[in-house]
Design brief:
The complex is a heterodimer of chains A (226) and B (378).
Chain A: E1 2-11, E2 19-29, E3 34-38, H1 45-52, E4 60-65, E5 68-69, H2 75-85, E6 86-89, H3 101-106, H4 116-129, H5 145-157, E7 163-167, H6 175-190, E8 194-198, H7 202-205, E9 212-217, E10 220-225
Chain B: H1 2-19, H2 23-59, E1 64-70, E2 73-75, E3 77-78, H3 80-86, E4 91-104, E5 109-115, E6 125-128, H4 130-136, E7 143-147, E8 153-161, H5 167-170, E9 173-175, H6 178-185, E10 191-192, E11 194-199, H7 205-215, E12 219-223, H8 224-262, H9 266-277, H10 282-313, H11 321-325, H12 342-368
Parallel strand pairs in B: 5-9, 6-8
Antiparallel strand pairs in B: 1-2, 1-11, 1-12, 3-10, 4-5, 4-11, 6-9, 7-8
Helix pairs in contact in B: 1-10, 2-8, 2-10, 2-12, 8-12, 10-12
Classes of the chains: A alpha/beta (226), B alpha+beta (378).
The complex binds adenosine-5'-diphosphate and magnesium ion (MG).
């Protein structure tokens, strides 16, 4: 269970341009479900993802993961939790250009101290699951949008995280690729992972396997569809 | 602990595969870096080798040389002085010597002409140094002709060309028999160029020298120790001169390195942001860049040093010869014995690899403390 308790987040706090991007959110997200954050641009969806995914700390309030309060932990511990519990699929994918697909996929695994062999075995398995087996040695720079996203997903899964976080995952994809992405999400759900994503694409938030849609506006939750 | 080692191995692996990108940039960096190391190492190896060579040669030189002075100028010394020297306490051996310079007008070169004291050259024969052999195009069995002091021609058959071993000093040697030396240069019997004196106890050299001056007031003594010191000072001075000139190059390199290695591109910043987001710690990112800097500078250092080694010991320091060896007309074919001084290597390593690595770390550290959420907004 991920629990948010009175979470608020300010940017540039104490300065003239202080801005409260999250203005008080109480929320419980059950593990093993697919949750979508929906809302207009600037409503704070991405910011909320960074707070849940240990990429940033809330200015006020608490974030709890599996009963553990993670909002007050020092950077080092946050990094470790982020590495082991969360996998990220970024909107722009952010693959590293010029190195192979395989090297991109193992990236989050390198600082864990797991053996290289173990990491590459797992990376190959993930790539073939995502129908990218023949791309392992290719330069990540020359992939199509759909391929790049599947590589980004493989990278998010290399450390076997409980939670996969995806920010606007289909903003750069056409409908058929969006369907393919949803199929992958369904498979992740089937193997028990929690998926948390933002989107204002109806194809996503109306999709059948989505358990819950949260709407945001001006840094607050508006309504909760069942 | 094993986790830590494994982690560093993983990071190093990734560093090496990512080094292959931006190949042009890294290779350019590597080339300039290696060139600087090459120049510095060449100067160091070369002047060091020359000093060693000079020391080896001088080790065979007499401890004391006695010259006669007339009106403040070096003059011929009578053979009778040798007997007086033999009588001085502490003197082990006394050897009157005959030598001088011969100007070869045809080649505009000076030879050192001398009568060897440890071997006898038969009349009509000559033993020559490598430089003379090359200048005259002569080998064993050839006949060389020279004009004597009175204008008459002397003919010599080359009996031997001196080996390479100590060419730095032996290149211009011309060894002949005593009778021909006297006839060709017009030196009277019983007169010598100078007298070499060896001493029983090396610690008494100065005492013996003082006794010699007291016994023979019209002479001057030259001590081997002093020559050695003069040589060292001379070569140190020239090495210093070269190093000063090279400092300019090193400075240029520092600026180049600072610019190339540390000016992180937007692309690199984005990558660092990504690494942080997917769970790399600040120290992991810095470790990666340290590995990168270490790989580049180690490769450059090894390449530069290896090239310098080849340059000095296989190509006789071809680039510096004129500066470091001075103005001799017959250039010795200098093949110094290969010799690497560990302390010298460490010094050079410290002054190249260390500043480069430090120069690259500071900006990396600044980029590496970027907030991990930054990547979500780029
Ligand atoms: N680093 C930042 N500094 C200042 N303001 C920020 C920063 N990041 C986001 N914001 C502001 O916070 C608000 C919410 O942003 P975001 O969470 O990205 O919204 P969404 O993802 O819903 O479009 C926006 O108005 C944005 O301008
Ligand atoms: Mg957003």
């Amino acid at each position: 269970m991920i629990v948010l308790d009175g979470v608020r987040k300010a940017f540039n706090q104490g300065k003239p341009n202080e801005f409260w991007a999250i203005r008080g959110i109480d929320l419980e997200i059950e593990l093993g479900r697919v949750t979508v954050l929906q809302g207009p641009s600037g409503s704070g969806k991405t910011t909320l993802l960074t707070l849940i995914g240990c990429l940033a700390r809330p200015t006020a309030g608490r974030v709890r993961l599996g009963g553990r309060d993670i909002s007050g932990l020092p950077e080092r511990f946050l990094t470790e939790i982020r590495r082991n519990s969360f996998g990220f699929v970024f909107q722009q994918f952010h693959l590293i250009k010029g190195v192979s697909v395989l090297d991109n996929v193992v990236l989050p695994g390198l600082p864990t101290g797991r053996r290289r062999r173990e990491l590459t075995d797992r990376a190959h398995a993930l790539l073939s699951r995502l129908t990218l087996a023949d791309k392992a040695a290719s330069n990540a720079e020359w992939l199509s949008g759909g391929e790049a996203q599947r590589v980004a997903i493989a990278r998010a899964l290399i450390n076997e995280p409980e939670v996969v976080i995806a920010d606007e995952p289909t903003a750069n994809l056409d409908s058929s690729l969006t369907e393919a992405f949803l199929a992958i999400v369904a498979a992740l759900k089937a193997e028990g992972r929690t998926v948390l994503m933002t989107s204002h694409d109806p194809l996503i938030y109306r999709a059948e396997m989505v358990d819950r849609v949260l709407s945001m506006r001006d840094g607050r939750l508006v309504s909760q569809a069942p | 602990m094993t986790d830590w080692v494994e982690k560093q191995r993983n990071i190093l692996d990734f560093t090496l595969s990512s080094l292959r990108r931006r190949k042009g940039r890294h290779l350019g960096m590597l080339a300039v870096y290696a060139a600087i190391v090459f120049l510095l190492a060449s100067v160091m190896l070369f002047s060091h080798a020359i000093k060693r060579e000079a020391a080896i040669v001088l080790a065979d030189a007499p401890e004391i040389v006695v010259q006669r002075m007339v009106a403040g100028r070096h003059d011929l010394i009578p053979g009778a002085y040798a007997d007086r020297l033999t009588g001085i306490r502490g003197v082990a051996a006394v050897t009157p010597r005959l030598w001088g310079y011969y100007y070869d007008a045809a080649l505009a070169a000076n030879y050192t002409i001398l009568v060897p004291t440890d071997q006898a050259v038969p009349a009509g024969s000559v033993v020559i140094g490598g430089g003379v052999a090359r200048a005259r195009g002569a080998g064993v069995g050839d006949t060389l002709s020279f004009r004597g002091y009175g204008g008459e021609q002397f003919f010599f058959t080359v009996a031997e060309v001196l080996p390479h071993a100590s060419e730095l000093v032996a290149a211009d040697l011309f060894l002949i028999a005593e009778t021909e030396y006297r006839a060709m240069l017009g030196i009277d019997d019983g007169a010598y160029t100078d007298i070499a004196v060896s001493v029983r106890n090396p610690r008494e050299v100065v005492t013996v020298a003082n006794k010699i001056i007291a016994a023979l007031p019209d002479t001057r003594v030259i001590l081997r120790e002093e020559i050695l010191r003069t040589y060292d000072a001379l070569f140190d001075w020239r090495e210093g001169l070269m190093l000063v000139l090279l400092t300019g190059a090193v400075l240029a390199f520092a600026i180049f390195a600072g610019d190339k290695a540390s000016g992180l591109s937007a692309e690199e910043r984005r990558e660092i942001g990504l690494l942080k987001a997917v769970g790399w710690e600040t120290t992991d990112v810095i470790a990666m860049k340290v590995w990168e800097g270490a790989a580049v500078s180690l490769a450059a250092f090894l390449a530069g040093y290896l090239l310098a080694y080849l340059h000095v010991f296989h190509f006789s320091g071809a680039l510096f010869e004129p500066v470091l060896k001075g103005w001799a007309v017959l250039y010795p074919e200098f093949r110094p014995a290969a010799f690497v001084d560990v302390f010298q290597v460490l010094t050079l390593f410290f002054f190249t690899v260390f500043p480069y690595t430090v120069a690259t770390i500071v900006p990396i550290w600044r980029a590496a403390i970027i907030d991990p959420d930054a990547i979500m907004r780029s």
